[in-house]
Amino acid sequence: MNVDPASFARTALSVNLNKVALVRNTRHLGIPSVTRAATLCLQAGAHGITVHPRPDERHIRAHDVHELAALMKDWPDREFNIEGNPFHNLMGFVRAVRPHQVTFVPDSEGQFTSDHGWRFPADAERLRPLIAEAQALGARVSLFMDAEADAMAAARAVGADRVELYTEPYAAAWATPQCDAQLQRFRAAAQAALDAGLGVNAGHDLNRDNLTAFLATVPGVSEVSIGHALIGDALEMGYAATVGAYLGCIDAAFTRA
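Below the sequence we write its predicted structure tokens.
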């Protein structure tokens, strides 16, 4: 089933579980459980689950992807999003489990965290056949992109269904004099994406402080993927309360006067 978060009344929340796996991997006891975390987040109202299985398996491992794919069959109205570099290990997972969405991210193999988007026209011809293959397998394809309005038409031309705007520059500017300029930059990029016929996702360092302002300003965001801050909050508040708090942040963006 190809779930479309556009069917949700407001921006969908996908919970990235990488950090749960990172803690688990420090011991050999299988705790905390990634699938249990997914279940609790879904029960609390999260619209989807995201994982980024890197080649070194420093957090999400191959068995996690397969176990989560099996779990998500019990949640047919929710979305499973797998992200990663399609030139490393990502496509094997796409072929095996056929997620609802794949997010192509231009990480190097040992990269600490995602920190830039795809470049056009440099990456276009490499990406085109893999985008087409993922779509043929039933997945929506989102490209991880910097907030550059001029690049959005090129992302659409290569075949992408959506872009995921890399939001770390906005998060880094939060509560500084540069914040409004960053918001307007993201607003322009999102509008350019929408004008090109792309859906808009967003993610990286979004949190309970900065999420509402982002969604209230940036148009047409179908989905946010949040991991580090959400899992950090869950250590203090629990999964259910934390997911509820992030859903509240989303609601607040849509109820502002």
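Strands lie at 12-16, 48-51, 79-84, 101-104, 140-145, 162-166, 199-203, 221-226.
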